Amino acid sequence: MSSHYVYDKDNFRFRKQSRSPKAVVLRILKYFLASVSLAILYYMVFALFFSTDKERRLKAENRMYEKMYPEMEQKQKLLEDVVSGLEVKDNMIYNDLFQTDIVSLGSESSHFLSGSDSLEASDITRHSESLYAPMRGKAREIDDTFMEIFKMLASSRADSLPPLEFPIKNLTYTSFGASVGDKINPFYKVKVRHEGLDLIAPAGTPVCASADGVVSAVQRSAKGLGNVVSVDHGNGYVTRYAHLSGIKVGRGRRVSKGSVLGEVGMSGNSFAPHLHYEIWKDTVAMDPVNFFFSSVTPEEYSAMLLLSASAGQSMD
User: Fold this and answer.
1) Domain boundaries, the chain
2) How far apart are CA 170 and CA 201, in angstroms?
3) What is the pLDDT of residues 16-46, one digit of tens each?
4) Which GO terms describe its molecular function (predicted)?
5) Three-state DSSP class for residue 143
6) How far is 182 from 313, CA to CA, in rounded Å?
7) Burial environment of residue 21 by CB neighbours within 10 A (0 to 12, 13 to 18, 19 or more)
8) How far is Cα of residue 47 from the mean position of the Cα atoms in its chain?
9) What pTM does this model have?
10) Any idea of the CA torsion for 171, 300, 243, 227, to the nearest 10 degrees?
């Protein structure tokens, strides 16, 4: 117990006054709470009006991310569109070669399993069991597709496979012109249907058969496609080589892949020396670019697709 002196105004003297332990504790607690309150107030004022180096750095990063977000959103949308376009193109190529749609494996489990580090094992097990039956169905579908391909290959002769080689040796993607589609005619300046692929090469460059087959037609003309050689490869595949300056084969002749059929020229209605190359499957014009993927690297093939699709004017 502590004591202190107080002045007694009635008796005009100092008298001794004792403090109880409870009063001392309350007094200490009062000062403690006041100190804590002042400390909190000081911290709030400091945090409100002043920033640490780390906070300033984080605020600057947030402002930068706010500016970058719209641009990143646009890039993401562009990438999604590119991926969608590649999927469509991939299905077109697959369909051209195997006459069936590509099997889609889907991505049903990707979003669920993306947080697998925080999932219970029982949840993953139940989710896997729910996907088992659909995956078995897709596996059977893939097996059936492969069986159809194997049957097609087994029933095909070695000389009746799709034409997968370049008709001009040492061809690069820079030689690719307009492909199949509605293109501007260089002479009439109107859009007309273009049934083949323009391959730019110097006059006199050898033109070779893109696969084994039999020469089904030879046409010599000063109009249209000019001098043309057609080769039947079996299984409904026919290739045509147009605007030739010279023809080295005759109708009915059996040719092998790489056999010289003629030379690049500009016979008929040709704007400049080039080879107009067509691939037909069961009387339907195919895009020849879809058949070149095995002859080049993926980077070169992408460049070929871009050039052939973006060319708006044909050369014939």
Assistant:
1) 2-49, 115-154, 173-310
2) 11
3) 666 677 777 787 888 888 888 888 887 787 7
4) metalloendopeptidase activity
5) helix
6) 9
7) exposed
8) 48
9) 0.56
10) 80
